[in-house]
Amino acid sequence: MLIQLAIRDYAIVERLDLDLHDGMTAITGETGAGKSIMLGALGLCLGERADVGSVRHGCERADISARFDIARLADARAWLAERELPQDECLLRRVVTASGRSKAWINGQPVTVSDLRALGEHLIEVHSQHAHQALLREETHLRLLDTYAGQTEAVSTLGEHFHHWRARRRRLRDLQESGNEVQARRQLLRYQVEELDQLALAEGELETLEDEQTQLANLEEVLGDAQFAADCCDQDEHGALSLLHHANARLGNAPEKTQRQLADALSMLGEAQIQIEEAARELHHFVETTELDPQRLTEVDARLGEVHRIARKHHVMPEELRDLHQRLSDELASLEGGEHDLEALGEEVEQARDAYRQQARAISEARIEAARNFGEAVQAQLAFLGLGKATFEVAISPRETPQAEGLDQVRFMISANPGQPSRPLSKVASGGELSRISLAIQVVAAQHSSVPSMVFDEVDVGVSGAIAEIVGQLLRRLGAQGQILTVTHLPQVAAQAHHHLHIEKRSEHDTTLTHMALLDDAGRVRELARMLGGVKLSDRTLAHAREMLDASQHAQH
């Protein structure tokens, strides 16, 4: 349940910290005092749309936090666990800046506004004053009946079956219409893949072939250069070895003292002679053992020519051929697989249709059974609300075409007076009757909700007197099962509450601010007296308010 609500610089609220309790809490205040502000702030934490008007005038941002106790809310804990969010608490926070930008957090972790909205559905339900209008729409009737029948998850699964069936059916139709094009594409791909299979270009082969071609094409020139280098090293008249030999001989005839001075030079000349002899041997060995291979060069040229020809044919670079081969092979496998097999796809469509119809029939049976019980429960509440002569029923008829929600059309039907035929709820003329019928339906639906916290925003509009007291009793009964927050203008409803939250607007230093506070027993009497008798509180009005509060408390015990 909602245990704390903290509001900072929102609308005309500067700072507000509220501790909330289980049971029924009445929220009252004069018209325009800002009762909707609290619900608006809560709505932001539940993912509703924000705008710049949310920020108090002259402030940079509005900051709202809502803390929930989820110890008994398994669905909420599972939602948090699935997203790896902390589960030791449930704190929703929303910040809206003066520029209209907003940020959201759940348990201190940044999230999207849609995440707030999704989690909020497991935490609290809001029955607004516009619920009367929503109840005139048949999709609302279907949703409420499914909730009452415990079929919400089954209907969600049915929707998945429906969309899968429709997607398979659309795919089959598309393939049937484009069958010739697919066949032509398949034949082309077979030819192209077979050609690339025959080429069988291995990984790294292109680079190896190009290196080998370069080496083979230049080999004759390389051999000539090697022979020339070997000749330069030889001991003929102009060879390096012959010249070194003469140099060593000449220096060897120098005086001993000079030889000592040239010792390093003589040593290096000796080493150079050894190195050149080794180089000469290596060069001669290379020339003698290396043979020209024109046949291999022809083979390499032919292989490279074939690779470049096929690359040009497919308008790609040679190095892109392997990736092209893989892509075309994958596409061919797809076209030759079950996805493009009309017979196999037709069987898939039939299986998807059968799965949908089987699930839809089971849901229809559950709806038919629940419709009778739902109608009887609403009928009982109508009698309690002074509409004992009205007849309420849930009419179920088959749809002309299957839908994601199933095969049924659900309508709430009402006959306000005996002998009159039942008509759709949207045809009810009396606003007062509609508000009571709407309240009866909401009360019955709320009793079967998995969410223990509910907000009723002026759902008692259009009722008064004894009926208003009964409305309060109904809401209190719901509060005994969880937490009910109800915004009301009726003292008969407020008197039934376990707790009473009062909202008032004050002007301070040319600034208008809203204050909210839980009332004690004396404060409740004064507020009920104001609601009963207006601005001036007479002793008689106060006594009436005390009597009303005492009577409701006594009835509750």
TrEMBL record:
Quote any Pfam family the record assigns. Answer: SMC_N
Is Coiled coil tagged as a keyword? yes
Keyword DNA damage in annotation: yes
RecF/RecN/SMC N-terminal domain segment(s): 12-506
CDD domains from the xrefs? ABC_RecN
Q: What InterPro entries is this protein classified in?
A: DNA_recomb/repair_RecN, P-loop_NTPase, RecF/RecN/SMC_N
Coiled coil stretches, renumbered? 192-229, 335-369
The protein's UniProt keywords, in alphabetical order, are: ATP-binding, Coiled coil, DNA damage, DNA repair, Nucleotide-binding
Family according to the record: Belongs to the RecN family.
As for what it does, the entry says: May be involved in recombinational repair of damaged DNA.
In terms of NCBIfam families, this protein maps to: PRK10869.1 (NF008121), recN (TIGR00634)
Q: Which PANTHER family match?
A: DNA REPAIR PROTEIN RECN (PTHR11059)
Protein name, UniProt field: DNA repair protein RecN
Q: What is the lineage of its organism?
A: Bacteria, Pseudomonadati, Pseudomonadota, Gammaproteobacteria, Oceanospirillales
Its encoding gene is what? recN
